[in-house]
Amino acid sequence: METLEIKIAHLEYLCDQLNMVIIDQGKRLARLENELRGITSSVQEIEMERVRNTNVKPPHYQ
Fold first, then answer.
1. What are 45-54's contacts with CB under 8 Å, separation 24+?
2. Where along the chain do its domains lie?
3. Reduced to 3 states, what is the DSSP secondary structure of residue 55?
4. Count of C-beta atoms within a 10 Å radius of residue 49
5. CA 25, CA 19: separation in Å to the nearest integer?
6. Is the Cα dihedral 26, 31, 34, 36 positive or negative?
C-alpha cells in the first residue's frame, strides 16, 4: 500500500510540473503571437510605402 501511495504522490508531482510547463508555454506563445502581429504590421507598412513610392505619378499628371 505504501508503494502505491508513493507512486501516486510522484504522479501528482509530475502532473503539477507538466501543468507549469503548459502554462509557461501558453504565456510564451501569447508573447510570440503579439510580437508576430507587430512585425507583420511593420512589414505591411513598409510594403505599402514601397508601393506608394513606386507608383508615383509622372509630373504631367500632377
1. none
2. 9-46
3. coil
4. 10
5. 10
6. negative
